[in-house]
Specification:
There is one protein chain. By secondary structure, this protein is of the alpha+beta class. Among the domains are: 174 residues, no CATH class; 133 residues, no CATH class; 95 residues, Immunoglobulin-like (Sandwich); 69 residues. It contains 26 helices and 29 strands. Strands 21-11-24-28-27 form a 5-stranded antiparallel beta sheet, with no helix packed on it. Strand 25 and strand 26 form a beta hairpin. Helix 7 runs antiparallel to helix 8, helix 14 crosses helix 15 and helix 18 runs antiparallel to helix 19. The longest helix is centred in the last third of the chain and has 34 residues. The chain is globular, with a radius of gyration of 31 Å. The two termini are 34 Å apart.
Length: 853
């Protein structure tokens, strides 16, 4: 019997595994084809983060800080949100260029493990298992959440742990055994604290359900008294993750996720009858990933049996009422905006909504399995179950047709769903009528099982088939080429790069803006796209002219000499020609250019430099003020062009601007609040300007180098009215700017960066009371020493760092220490000892109770 159960458990892994392998073959996905999953956030975030994780482990870096993370930031919030899954270790067996293949295997293994975990829960909870149990375990592994969000694969670990968490709660309330619950809750928070937070809310609701189910005379005081073990073990398990939570919380508090939208805290319903359409197949695909109804699909048969659970007379009314309470508890987390916001850590999701739907699917499957077991006896499947299901589904589809047509993928899916309801009803009924163990009984069972597996596979195929798959061969070739160029250009330990890659050449079907290329290739960069982006750093870069699409992105779209100077962007790697820069490396269409204005990671400045306050949405003014603070001049460094002609069409949607440059140097164009997505064309002297990165508004353009007196004609056509009132078109006086560069070249510091997370370098100060400006973001966690003595840092140029120094030679040493991590580590160790004491107390208490008996 034990061997059979273990075989069934192993089979629960291989059923979804086989379904996925078949789908990958059909879709030509690696390693069975040339398509990869590099789309959406998987291509722009998760792949680079996994690449960074692989490099971090292989190179033995022992630091909490990374200069590949934007212009530099702690990696704790990023790691704790994206990288703590043990499945990520699989990347160590693949070269960097084949990480997209590793990702497919990670997704496949995770989904397969979900099936095995669910089977284990059903076996331990209900004892009775059979090959039919695979239907229910596979339904959870390929539920609506998985179908919609599997490319967000860092969320899949929680589905593996969740059935074990529920089992742990059952053991806690029924047997007063806490080890499983405490362990799984710890792992849930550890692997992804965001999803772990949701399981904590569920644990409270499920505990209330279990208490009411077990108690003969339930009361609030009774729940508090009986729940002491639950509250203590939950608290200890939760704070035992402090070594992860505290630094993650510290990092997240520095992002813009601390901004709250009051509208998301209003108790209004988010949807109507259209919700019921989600109980049919084909309710969501890649194009609906950012906005859709709750993805609660778990299989047609599962919903049919779930409805049957409430219709079977053998199930006590009290049990049905408690089950209904649990379902409504979860349903309200989708339906009411206020409750939905609370479930999502008090932030309404920006895309990928209803991230807790897997919990609803789990409970539905649980009750469906109970109904299935009762149907194995003398219970009959009531006709009212498929009738109710049909009415609800048709009502949901009708509501979709009337109010949410954009959510309808195909009307044929609704027909298939309705047919399957009655097909399963017929198969179940005929199987019940057939004598158990006969050939007919087995045939109906096989037909039922195969149909359900095909249905679940079909639903998953619908959800992923519209993904704009990447080209794996092109990705590998481009990765190797870019990595070789970067390796050839890296002359020093620490200098920044600006890299531009054409999406098509890199193997991406959709537009990839390369926000995290610095993380992917392992160099110090500028752009960034993460949910953990430091808000002050983002605002500073935006004020200097970089493009900010939203609270999670900052992109160095166009070239700026002042930005290169301030941030030490030493090289540009681009497929576009730049005649004003020295080409130092050429590989096919890709060229590496040296930026002569990048003199070092820091240089000496006067105290006035730290007093410059950056103005919001004024990049030209901000750059001018910083240059004046470095080397005061009677004339501006940025000189406006002379307008000779300005022609605006009657509808104000076309502008022709003829100008003459006032200085020799690069020409910068800034037109705030224009909708670039509505711009039909933008050209300079007849040459079309097309940014390689998607931009929406507020972008500082570099139009190229022009000598003084050159005629420059701008033509701008838009589908909306163009307002030139706040336009700036200025030349950076190259002679004056070169003088600034020359004045700082001998006062610059070359910092070296070690794998231990240390920065060090030497600088000589000839005048008293000078500041050493460093292009390192201001962060109180830096411990800075000059000649072995601690020195304070002050913010400069927005959110960068400056160190006051006296006259003399200084040996600068900096190390990043995450104090919140150390505090969290102390709390974690204290919690472990507390838990061991708590376990011992439970053991003594149980022993005394047995002695009394």
């Amino acid at each position: 019997m034990k061997i059979k159960e273990n075989s069934l458990l192993i089979g629960s892994f291989f059923v979804p595994f086989t379904i996925l392998i078949v789908l990958w073959i059909i879709l030509d996905i690696v390693p069975f084809g040339n398509n990869n999953l590099l789309a959406s956030d998987l291509g722009s975030q998760y792949l680079p983060f996994l690449s960074n994780f692989k490099s971090f482990v292989e190179e033995g870096n022992l630091t909490f800080y990374s200069f590949s993370n934007g212009i530099g930031d702690t990696i704790f919030p990023l790691s704790s949100y994206y990288l703590l899954s043990p499945f990520n270790l699989l990347t160590l067996f693949f070269p960097h260029e084949q990480l997209p293949v590793a990702i497919v295997w990670i997704i496949t293994l995770k989904i397969s493990c979900i099936g095995m975990s669910m089977f284990y829960y059903l076996k331990k909870t209900y004892i009775e298992v059979s090959p039919f149990t695979w239907i229910f375990s596979t339904a959870f592994s390929l539920c609506g959440f998985t179908a919609a969000y599997s490319i967000n694969f860092m969320w899949l670990d929680i589905l593996i742990l969740f059935p074990l968490l529920a089992l742990g709660l059952q053991k806690l309330w029924q047997e007063k055994r806490v080890t499983l619950y405490v362990t799984i809750l710890f792992l849930s928070i550890f692997t992804n604290y965001y999803m772990g937070y949701m399981t904590c809310i569920f644990a409270v609701g499920y505990s209330i359900y279990l208490y009411l189910k077990l108690s003969a005379a339930p009361s609030i005081l009774g729940f508090i008294k009986e729940g002491k073990i639950f509250f203590i073990s939950s608290f200890l398990s939760g704070i035992s993750t402090s070594f992860i939570l505290l630094p993650a919380l510290e990092g997240m508090m520095q992002t813009k996720k601390t901004d709250f939208n009051l509208l998301t805290f209003l108790p209004y319903p988010k949807f109507g009858l259209s919700f019921f359409s989600q109980f049919g197949i084909g309710s969501v695909d890649f194009n609906l990933r950012l906005e859709h109804l709750p993805t609660v699909f778990s299989g047609i048969l599962i919903i049919l049996l779930f409805l049957t659970y409430f219709l079977l007379p053998s199930i006590p009314k009290k049990e049905k009422k408690l089950s209904l309470f649990l379902i409504l508890f979860l349903f309200l987390s989708f339906w009411i905006e206020l409750i939905n916001t609370v479930w999502h850590m008090f932030q309404s999701p920006a895309g990928f909504p209803y991230r807790n739907t897997f919990i609803f699917s789990f409970i539905v499957i649980k009750f469906a399995y109970e109904a299935f077991l009762r149907l194995q006896t003398d219970e009959k499947l009531p006709l009212s179950a498929p009738l109710i299901y049909t009415i609800c589904l048709m009502g949901g589809y009708s509501a979709l047709f009337l109010f949410n047509k954009n959510f309808i993928l195909s009307y044929s899916y609704s027909v298939i769903s309705l047919v399957l309801i009655w097909l399963y009803y017929v198969l179940l009924n005929h199987r019940q009528k057939a004598e158990k163990g006969t050939a007919l009984w087995k045939i109906f069972g096989i037909l039922l099982t195969v149909s359900i597996f095909m249905e679940l596979g079909l639903n998953y195929w619908i959800s992923v088939k519209e993904i704009p798959f990447g080209n794996q061969q092109a990705f590998e070739q481009n990765y190797k080429k870019q990595a070789a160029i970067l390796a050839a250009l890296k002359k020093k330990d620490f200098e920044r790069f600006k890299q531009t890659i054409i999406s098509d050449e890199a193997g991406y079907t959709e537009k990839n803006n390369g926000y995290n290329d610095s993380i992917l290739y392992g160099y110090a960069g500028v752009s960034s796209y993460t949910s953990t982006l430091h808000s002050d750093t983002q605002d500073m870069l935006n004020d200097l002219g970089l493009y900010q699409k939203n609270d999670r992105r900052i992109a160095y779209v166009d070239d700026s000499q002042v930005v290169n100077f301030l941030l030490n962007v030493s090289y540009q790697i681009t497929p576009f020609e730049n005649t004003f820069r020295e080409a130092v490396s050429i590989d096919g269409q890709t060229v590496g250019y040296k930026n002569p204005e990048a003199v070092g990671m820091g240089f000496l400045v006067s105290e006035e430099f730290a007093n410059v306050q950056l103005m919001e949405d004024e990049p030209i003014i901000n750059q001018e003020n910083l240059l004046q603070a470095l080397k005061p001049e009677a004339e501006n460094y940025f000189k406006p062009v002379q307008k000779t002609n300005e022609t605006i069409s009657p509808d104000e949607k076309t502008v022709l601007l003829e100008t003459i440059t006032a200085a020799s140097g690069e020409l910068y164009f800034y037109l705030p609040n224009v909708s670039w997505s509505s711009t039909e064309s933008f050209s300079v002297n007849g040459k079309k300007i097309e940014p390689n990165v998607y931009i929406k508004t507020n972008q500082l353009f570099n139009l190229g180098y022009y000598t003084k007196g050159d005629k420059v004609t701008l033509t701008l056509k838009s589908r909306k009215k163009i307002n030139l009132e706040d336009m700036e078109l200025v030349s950076l006086d190259q002679r004056a700017f070169d003088a600034v560069i020359a004045s700082k070249r001998n006062k610059a510091i070359d910092l070296r960066w070690t794998k231990m997370g240390e920065l060090f370098g030497n600088i000589s100060v000839k005048n008293e009371d000078q500041l050493l400006y460093l292009s390192v973001p201001y962060d109180k966690n830096w411990l800075i020493k000059s000649n072995g003595k601690a020195v304070e840092q002050i913010p400069a140029a927005g959110n960068l760092m400056a160190i006051p120094l006296k006259e003399g030679t200084h040996s600068i040493a900096m190390v990043y220490r995450s104090m919140s991590y150390y505090y969290g580590l102390i709390i974690t160790f204290a919690t472990i000892f507390s838990f061991l004491f708590f376990r011992y107390w439970l053991y003594i208490k149980k022993k005394r109770e047995l002695n009394k008996c």
